[in-house]
Every structure is written in structure tokens, then in C-alpha cells.
Amino acid sequence: AKKSGKSKYMHYDPSMSNALENDHLLISHIKNAYENKEFTLHYQPQINAHTDEIIGFEALIRWYSKDFGYIPPDRVIPLAESTGLIIPIGLCIIEQSIQFALEMKKKFSSNFKVSINISVVQLLESNFEDELFERLERYHLDPRYIQLEITESVLIETSGTMIVKLNSIRDKGISISLDDFGTGFSSLTYLQKLPINEIKIDKSFIDEMLTDSKPAKLVDTILYLAKELNLNVIAEGVETKEQQDYLLDHGCSIMQGYYNSKPLPIEEVILFCEKRIH
Ligand code: C2E
Ligand code: CA
Ligand code: CA
Ligand code: CA
């Protein structure tokens, strides 16, 4: 795909072949992709490996560019953040996630949450929560079906308005998960200050916990903390049975990762759920 894209555009703009590396070029394509509704979501199941239940799904943005093929979110999101495009794109992600929740609710009528990644740039918008609540009302979705994944970067806002905002979101019945836990500068104060329901143990710890005693001890410590603070805990990036068994043995039952399922398009999530349930 990369090859054909290259030759196709060589005619009028040689720099196009470098679009993946060229921020300015990619930004203009992101803008077009938004206008042409090219962004979709895949959903990765979150499993209670203890009871074998599906307890939720993380929504992850996907962009298959006609010109460049698949562009990973790690490339798209930072550019969308730096240009402000994350605001309209983020609202579109929220709407798609709400529609997905409605469809899953209709099909499976069980308890689950759809976890939506929210950038700090979105949270800094003064009307973020109003836009969110407005959509939940418009689509008649009970807020308990939604969870927001935030990172500790939300605390760059020290004035306390962020905490007020997160509190009002949680008061609505929306859950909040602290993503990539353990990777930042997270002081334990954050756990105390932020109104969170869940912490998500970063994949880097899961990757190394079976081969190195330090990450293994950190995982144990995080699990202990979560228990003491009455927080849910989920492990991300669980790729093997050995990792899952280890986590189960150490008191963590909620898993997300390739071992259970990759992020899937909606039709495949439905098949995945049908297979697990029946
Ligand atoms: P994240 O929030 O930490 O998401 C987890 C990433 O790990 C996803 O990458 C997921 O596909 C991948 N993953 C899940 N299980 C496994 C596993 O077992 N092994 C491996 N190797 N990887 C696994 P993805 O989809 O490429 O997203 C990367 C990052 O981009 C996300 O990291 C998140 O920070 C950001 N992102 C993705 N979608 C959105 C979105 O809708 N909004 C915002 N603001 N950020 C998003
Ligand atoms: Ca996430
Ligand atoms: Ca994460
Ligand atoms: Ca991560």
C-alpha cells in the first residue's frame, strides 16, 4: 500500500511520500480524514478471568488512510492534540462509543462499560462535561455504561478545576480509570486527589513481571494499593496465559490484552461476545 501511494503522488508532490514523517502534511490529512469521517473505533474486550465474564471494552481509534494505509494512534493523537483537532475528533469518538454501548446493550443486555480514552486537551475545554452529558441524554444512554480513561497528565492543571470537573463527571455516574498507571511521575497524592474508580496497570510492568523481580514486586504493590484504596484494577497488555495466571494468583482478575482478544471492529466484537456467552 505504501508503494502504490508513493508512486501515485510522486507526480505532483514528492514530499507526499514522506507524509508519515511530515507533521504538517499529516495534519492536513488528519483534518480531511475527520471531515470525511474516516476515523473509526475498534473495541478491545476486558475480561474477568476469574468468572470468565466480559466486563467492558476499550475504544481505540483507527485510521486507514486511502493514501498511506494504517496510521497508528500514537502518531495521530499527538498531532490532533497539538492542533486542537482532538476536540471535534474526540466528540466523534464519544458519539461512536455511545452508539456502540447502545448496540451491545440491546444485543447482550448485561453489565459492561465502554472505556473511552480522553486527552487532557479535551478535559481542559471548559464545556467538555456539558458536551459529554448532552450526548448521553441525546442518545438516552445510562452514564454507568461509560468510563473515561485519563492519564495523570490531567494534573498539569493544578488549580483544582480539573478535580472539580472530574468530580462532576463521576457524580453523573460515569466511571474514571487512571491509565498507564505507574509510568509517569505519579505521586501517591494523585490517587488521593483524583476521583477515580479504577487503575490500569501499564503494559510495561506486565511485560517484565515474569522475568524480573522488580516489576513483579511493583505489580504486587499496585495490587495491594488498589485493594487498600478500594479501587478496581485492570492489567493491560496481557499477552500470554502465563501472565494471566500470574495475575490471577496475585489477586488481579480483570485483564485486557492480546491473550484474550485484540481490539476488534464492531462486527467481530459481537461474534466474540456471542461465542463467549453461548
Ligand atoms: P493506551 O490507551 O495505553 O491503549 C493500549 C494500547 O495497547 C492500544 O494501542 C492497544 O491496541 C494496545 N494493546 C492492547 N493489548 C495489547 C497487547 O496484548 N499487546 C500489545 N503489544 N499491545 C496491546 P493503540 O490502539 O495503538 O493505541 C495507542 C495509544 O493511542 C493508546 O494507548 C492511547 O494513548 C492512544 N489512543 C488510542 N485511541 C485513542 C482515542 O480514541 N483517544 C485518545 N485520546 N487517545 C487514543
Ligand atoms: Ca487507554
Ligand atoms: Ca493504557
Ligand atoms: Ca500503556
UniProtKB/TrEMBL annotation:
Top-level division of the source organism's lineage: Bacteria
EAL domain span: 23-277
Protein's name in the database: EAL domain-containing protein
Organism this protein belongs to: Fusibacter bizertensis
Full-sequence portion shown in this chain: 569 to 846 of 846
